[in-house]
Amino acid sequence: MTARRWWWVAVLGMAALAGALAVLSLQTPWRLALALTGIGMLIASWALWGDRRVMAGETSVAVILGVALAAGTATAGFASLAILQAIAYPIAWVFSSRLRDALLANLAVALAVGVGFAASIGTEPDDLRQIVFTQSLALGFSLAMGFWISRMTELGEERGRLLVELQGAQEQIAALNREAGAAAEGERLARELHDTIAQDLTGLVMLAQRARREAAAPDGTLAMIEEGARAALGETRALVAAGAALDTDGLGLDGALQRLAERFERETGVAVSLAIDEGVALSRDAEVVVLRCAQEALSNARKHARARQVVLDVGIAEGGPERRIRLTVSDDGIGFDPDSAPAGFGLSGMNERLALVGGTLRATSAPGAGTVIVAELPASIPNPTGASTMEAPR
C-alpha cells in the first residue's frame, strides 16, 4: 500500500472513530451537528489540499488551517473529539517546510482545540486550568515527537549523503587501482618484452651481420637465424597467452639455463660455463626471476662485453634467516664504469625485477677488467608480476 493510501486510512479512520463517539454520546442536536461538521471539515481539508500535496512533499498552509479548524469545531461540539489532534498534529508537521513553521502550525492546532474545549466545557477558572493543562500536555508531546522524528530524518539524510560520498570515493579508489594495475602491467610487459623478444631480435641482427660476412658458407648461420625467429615468435605467443606457467619442457631450471647457454654459444661463439650447486631448490616464480636475470645478463654480455668466456653460477647464498639463492654471471670482457653506465632496461630492469621479490642486484666492473653481476633472491617467493608468461630459451 502506498503512503498516500495510508494517509487516507489514517484520516478516514480518525473521522470514523470521532463520528462514532459523537453519535454514541447522545448529544443534543446542535452539538452533534457541530461535531459532525468538524469531522466533515477534516475530510474535506484533506481531500482538497492534503491528498495531492503529500506525495509531492509540498507545504500547505491551507491544509494545516483547515485541519486545525476542523479539530476545534468538532471539539466545540463534543469535548472527547479533541482526539482529532492525533491526526492534526502529524499533518501540521508534514506540511511545514521549516522548523519555525512547524512550531506555529502546532500552536495553531493547540489554540483551535483549546477554543473548542472552552466552547464545549465552559470558561470557568477550573475549566480554563484543565484546558491549559490538557493542551500544554498535547502540544508538548507533539513537539517532542516532532523534534525526535525530524532529528532522525536529518540523521538518515546525512547518512544517505555520506553513503553516496563513500560510494563515490570507492569508485575513485577502484579507478585509481585500475590505473595503477594498468601501469604496473605495462611495466611488467615492457620488462618481459625486453627480456625476451628484444634479446631474440638483437641476436637475429647479429646473426644477419655474421651471415653477410660468411658468404662462402651461410647455411649454418641462416639455420640459427630461423631458430632465433622461431624463438621470438614463441615468446610473442607466450606473452599473449596470459596466465601460462613457466615452460621448460620438463627440464627444470637446470635444463633451461643449459639451453640458454648453448644457444648463446652458438649465436656468439663465446664459451659459456654453467655451474649449479646441488640442493638448489626454487619455487616456480623464483625460477622465472633467475632465468630472466640470466637472459638479461647474457644479453648485456652479447651487446657490450666483447668477452671470450662467460660463467653462469647458481648457488645457495650464505647467511641470513631465510634461504636465498645467488646467481652470478661473470665475463672477461672489456668491462665498464657502473657509475656512468647509460640508463636502460639492462641493469635497471634486473634491479626492478629483483626488488619486486625482495631480491638484490650487485654489479662489479671496471674498464678492461670484465664484469661480475650477482643477483640474490629468496628461494621461495610469491608471484611477483601477476600471471607470468615465460618460455624456456631455445
From TrEMBL:
Histidine kinase domain residues: 296-381
Subcellular localization, as worded in the UniProt entry: Cytoplasm
Cofactor(s), names only, from the UniProt record: [4Fe-4S] cluster
Keyword Membrane: yes
Transmembrane annotation, as ranges: 6-25, 32-49, 61-91, 103-122, 128-149
Name this protein carries in UniProt: Oxygen sensor histidine kinase NreB
An annotated Gene Ontology molecular function: ATP binding
Function summary: Member of the two-component regulatory system NreB/NreC involved in the control of dissimilatory nitrate/nitrite reduction in response to oxygen. NreB functions as a direct oxygen sensor histidine kinase which is autophosphorylated, in the absence of oxygen, probably at the conserved histidine residue, and transfers its phosphate group probably to a conserved aspartate residue of NreC. NreB/NreC activates the expression of the nitrate (narGHJI) and nitrite (nir) reductase operons, as well as the putative nitrate transporter gene narT.
Catalytic activity: ATP + protein L-histidine = ADP + protein N-phospho-L-histidine
One Gene Ontology term, aspect cellular component: cytoplasm
InterPro entries the UniProt entry points to: HATPase_C_sf, HATPase_dom, His_kinase_dom, Sensor_HK_TwoCompSys, Sig_transdc_His_kin-like_C, Sig_transdc_His_kin_sub3_dim/P, Sig_transdc_His_kinase_ChrS
Keyword terms, alphabetized: 4Fe-4S, ATP-binding, Cytoplasm, Iron, Iron-sulfur, Kinase, Membrane, Metal-binding, Nucleotide-binding, Phosphoprotein, Transferase, Transmembrane, Transmembrane helix, Two-component regulatory system
PROSITE patterns: HIS_KIN (PS50109)
PANTHER family tied to this protein: NITRATE/NITRITE SENSOR PROTEIN NARX-RELATED (PTHR24421), NITRATE_NITRITE SENSOR PROTEIN NARQ (PTHR24421:SF10)
Superkingdom of origin: Bacteria
EC class name: transferase
Record keyword Cell membrane present: no
Its EC number(s): 2.7.13.3
